Amino acid sequence: MTDTDRARLARLLRAEQETYSAEHPRSRELFEAGSNLFGRVPMTWMNKWSGGFPLYLDHARGNRITDVDGHTYVDFALGDTGAMAGHSPAATTAAVARRMGERGGITTMLPTEDAQWVGAELTRRFGLPLWSFTLSATDANRWAVRLARLATGRSKILVFAYCYHGSVDEAFAVTGPDGTTVSRAGNVAPPVPVDVTTRAATWNDLASVERQLAHGDVAAILTEPALTNIGIVLPEPGFLEGLRELATRYGALLMIDETHTFSAGWGGATREWGLEPDIFVIGKSIGGGIPCGAYGISEAVAAVVTGHTDTGEADIIDVGGVGGTLAGNALSTAAMRATLDEVLTQDAFAHMTSLATAFTDGVQGVLDEYDVPWSVSRLGARSEYRFVRPAPRTGEESAAAHDDDLEAYLHLALCNRGILMTPFHNMALMCPDTTRGDVDRHTAVFREVVAALYE
Prior knowledge:
Layout (H helix, E strand, L loop, with lengths): L5 H18 L1 H8 L24 E5 L2 E4 L4 E4 L14 H14 L9 H14 L3 E5 L2 H16 L3 E5 L12 E3 L5 E3 L14 E4 L4 H8 L4 E6 L15 H11 L3 E5 L10 H5 L6 E5 L9 E5 L1 H12 L19 H14 L2 H25 L4 E5 L2 E5 L8 H6 L3 H13 L2 E2 L6 E3 L6 H19 L1
Parallel strand pairs: 3-15, 5-8, 5-9, 9-10, 10-11
Antiparallel strand pairs: 1-2, 2-3, 4-12, 6-7, 11-12, 13-14, 14-16
Helix pairs in contact: 1-13, 3-10, 4-10, 5-9, 6-7, 11-14
């Protein structure tokens, strides 16, 4: 096994930072001029790019991005899944233009026929019969959590350490050393101590799940079918089936969030792996880049919720906490219909998954060649390398494998050679426009930057 020479890593990282800074003067200029923006960027997470300032976008199409300095990149970040359909897919662009320019009425608080089409398509793919729309998966998760509490009469949500469900307060929790639930490092001003609302368990550890459910106060298990935002951590055989059985046994709902794991296939991991959620959440990618999200619920959950609303105990129409004036607007439903109908098709997923398999094989070949102690995992059209071998089994193991300097070096070295990876981690996603040549290019560049470090 080849150890990382930290002095060499520092020299290489410094050189890549100097190259990045020299080759992006206009991006630097725009960043420095952003004096009226908090953090100098439209959203503070845009500062995650490793070069000291972010690239500024000029234009993008398919899986190509061109920055304001004229550099064009093969984009494997794809908006951290938001652009899984590619940038400005033709069908989505045409549908949005029709809605905005020809028909008018971007948002009117009135339904359109597109909404039912999208709901039926989501049922066809994911199985849940009843759907409601939001503007993000974060909102979908928040609102669905409230419905889960209403349906069960219980207050707490069970999550997994280092899970990701957007900025949902309940999700920023990890297990403490004594098995208690504590706030995840970096959590911004939680409204209450996290153990008031949440119980945390360890991924791939059904015993830890059962210990938390045994308290009898968990309304729902909120989980992805695989951890994603801490690196891909796949479920071990029987784990997801065990979650379903435990949720049923202890009277909790099973809430599956496929915002990222939609990469697993046309119907997400839910269809691919035969999962049976009571509540289902998705967002980002289904609108082809137009803000949107959705949650689906079972008939049984809907019946219980309706029982509470019929008596006036809960209000899901006006001020009860389930809302959003722009949610389900005419523009986003038009975008979702076009994207699901014409872009993220079964054929597209077959193409994307094939390329992700080749991407993963290419990375593994380089790791084997240089005996690098990293691993690479794939989830359908998504692939990710992690700085540990073997691949992590839990969120805790994956978090412990994080290495700021290695990540910065890889991101900058690839960027300087025309390849963009997701800035938050080492994730690569394929879209319908990705080609085998793009994948092979990554393999060649990845080999070059790994060789510079380990040869």
